[in-house]
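May I ask for whichever protein you like with its backbone structure tokens?
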Amino acid sequence: MDRTVRIDYMAKVIRSGIGCWVHLYHDTRLTDSYIGNYSYIAPETKVQNTVIGEYCSIGPRCMIGLGYHPSNLESTHPSFYSTKHHYSQGIDLGVIESQRITIGDHVWIGAGVIIFDGVRIGDHVTIAAGSVVNRSIKSGRTVGGNPIMTISK
């Protein structure tokens, strides 16, 4: 790992790539992801199955990549549809449990933001604190709310 990378106490990096001049603050988790050069993830943020661009600022207590639980089956518990877990019944129903999230360059994600699987966020986007991102965002937008709405273009 490059010496310009700073990973604070209790931060975890699992099967992930890290660019240069990156800072992962305490209690962050980066799983099956990549974070680009000059980006940081603030404390207590969880990121999975995500590609993060360069010069991104990700606020504290965000949840990025939550996975998917189908609501049209007998149960939403993974033992009924997943083949990835030890408690699985081994039945492959073809459920896609997670989809890659893409975050462009120069993106600012405020505190407490939730980003659903499969979302694509363009370059130069600002996401207001506490927002729930349930769809893709075009470059140059400022968005906020639950669900998100465009604040400015």
In short: The chain has a mean pLDDT of 91. The two ends are 38 Å apart (CA to CA). The longest strand covers residues 149-152.
